[in-house]
Amino acid sequence: GARVWLRDKELLLPATVSSRSHDDLVLTTDYGEVMYLQQGELSRDQVFPMHLTSINGVEDMSSLAELHEAAIMYNLYLRYQKDCIYTNIGSILAAVNPYKQISGLYDPAAVDLYSRHHLGELPPHIFAVANECYRCLWKRHDSQCVLISVESGAGKTESTKLLLQFLSVMSQNSAGTPQSERSIRVEQAIIQSSPIMEAFGNAKTVYNNNSSRFGKFIQLHFSQSGNIHGGCIIDYLLEKNRVVRQNPGERNYHIFYALLAGADKNHRGCNLPVETPTLEDSDNTAS
């Protein structure tokens, strides 16, 4: 019944001791594989006990007693099974895409709860990062930055929306001061710009139906009272070749399909004769 790590070639696998005798050791990995090991073949490097922090899982992986890739992945797996998709690594937040809706995770009550606590006082959450960023604007009297970086389909776009959602609420509630009409318009413009940016810069790929094919830098300006009073969005590295060519199973940018969906039926497909342009009229041919 003891929990151990089993070294299989270059991998460390979480496993459970099924039985033990003077001659051999029977292990069952978490992937269902049964391993029979002779006592004479065993070594400390091949099978060793799993630490309690790895068995139970931790909210902050900097407190893991075993710092290797297998322990990190197993800890994320344990929390993922409990719908705890956020895990801290010191001041870094690791997020695992649940690919489903988790009740109450981002509702107004969660925003209010994390806005009243410092980082580390509550379970890991993207709202905790956003709140710490907002507080540090005045605590350190300096600009703050949140960097979201990971592979396609992991949830960068949605995480950005959640950060903006939290900062918008904090802006509205800041110091109990009423916001000006201009400040409210700025907040709404920044939040509502996301679907527009996605329409022109996101496309379906084999990994993600709404994959961002460009980089995005969002800058927010806060007043001394804590309200958002300005901002800008800078895009860069747009995947331009997708406009003219897509890989099998992928699509062009969303905006082209939106234009076709909104067009009159008579204009969606024109039965025009197809002619092969010659060198003489190539300057007048659109590509």
Automatic annotation (TrEMBL):
<dbReference type="InterPro" id="IPR001609">
    <property type="entry name" value="Myosin_head_motor_dom-like"/>
</dbReference>
<keyword id="KW-0547">Nucleotide-binding</keyword>
<keyword id="KW-0505">Motor protein</keyword>
<dbReference type="GO" id="GO:0003779">
    <property type="term" value="F:actin binding"/>
</dbReference>
<dbReference type="Pfam" id="PF00063">
    <property type="entry name" value="Myosin_head"/>
</dbReference>
<feature type="domain" description="Myosin motor">
    <location>
        <begin position="56"/>
        <end position="287"/>
    </location>
</feature>
<dbReference type="InterPro" id="IPR027417">
    <property type="entry name" value="P-loop_NTPase"/>
</dbReference>
<dbReference type="GO" id="GO:0003774">
    <property type="term" value="F:cytoskeletal motor activity"/>
</dbReference>
<dbReference type="InterPro" id="IPR051724">
    <property type="entry name" value="Actin_motor_Myosin"/>
</dbReference>
<keyword id="KW-0009">Actin-binding</keyword>
<dbReference type="GO" id="GO:0016459">
    <property type="term" value="C:myosin complex"/>
</dbReference>
<keyword id="KW-0067">ATP-binding</keyword>
<protein>
    <submittedName>
        <fullName>Unconventional myosin-X-like</fullName>
    </submittedName>
</protein>
<comment type="similarity">
    <text>Belongs to the TRAFAC class myosin-kinesin ATPase superfamily. Myosin family.</text>
</comment>
<dbReference type="GO" id="GO:0048675">
    <property type="term" value="P:axon extension"/>
</dbReference>
<dbReference type="GO" id="GO:0044295">
    <property type="term" value="C:axonal growth cone"/>
</dbReference>
<keyword id="KW-0518">Myosin</keyword>
<dbReference type="InterPro" id="IPR036961">
    <property type="entry name" value="Kinesin_motor_dom_sf"/>
</dbReference>
<dbReference type="Pfam" id="PF18597">
    <property type="entry name" value="SH3_19"/>
</dbReference>
<dbReference type="InterPro" id="IPR040640">
    <property type="entry name" value="MyoX_N_SH3"/>
</dbReference>
<dbReference type="GO" id="GO:0005524">
    <property type="term" value="F:ATP binding"/>
</dbReference>
